[in-house]
């Protein structure tokens, strides 16, 4: 789906913040195209990522997902 730039900017201005997942998706998309970028496009991508970082609400993780319990077999 292609979104007209003016419509996209109005969506961003209404919500003001991106979720961390939305930020990750946009950065991942840019990274997939990185080898095809000329130097100016690379700079534009860096600038876009910096601006998106400011617009993103990063929520800290409340608890660790996994804790490693050291066992006797770990030292082998």
Polypeptide structure, described:
With 76 residues, the protein is mostly helical. The protein has a domain at 11-57. The model has no long low-confidence stretch (mean pLDDT 79). The chain is built from three helices and no strands. Helix 2 (20-33) runs antiparallel to helix 3 (39-54).
Question: What secondary-structure arrangement, pairings included, does this model have?
Answer:
Elements: H1 5-15, H2 20-33, H3 39-54
Helix pairs in contact: 2-3
List keywords for this structure.
76 residues; mainly alpha; single chain; 54% helix
User: SS-based structural class?
Assistant: mainly alpha
Q: How much of the residues is beta strand, in percent?
A: under 5%
Summarize model confidence as the mean pLDDT: 79
Q: What series of H and E elements makes up the topology?
A: HHH
| N-to-C span | 53 Å
Count the strands? 0
Overall spatial form: elongated
User: Roughly how much helix do the residues carry, as a percent range?
Assistant: 40-55%
- In DSSP terms (H or I, runs of 4 or more residues), the helix count works out at 3
Q: Round the Cα radius of gyration to an integer and report it.
A: 19 Å
Profile the largest sheet: none
Task: Give the low-confidence spans.
Answer: none
């Amino acid at each position: 789906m292609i979104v007209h730039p003016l419509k996209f900017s109005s969506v961003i201005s209404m919500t003001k913040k991106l979720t961390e997942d939305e930020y990750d998706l946009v950065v991942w998309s840019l990274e997939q195209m990185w080898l095809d970028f000329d130097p100016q496009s690379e700079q534009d991508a860096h600038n876009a990522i910096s601006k998106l970082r400011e617009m993103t609400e990063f929520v800290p993780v409340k608890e660790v997902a996994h804790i490693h319990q050291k066992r006797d077999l770990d030292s082998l």
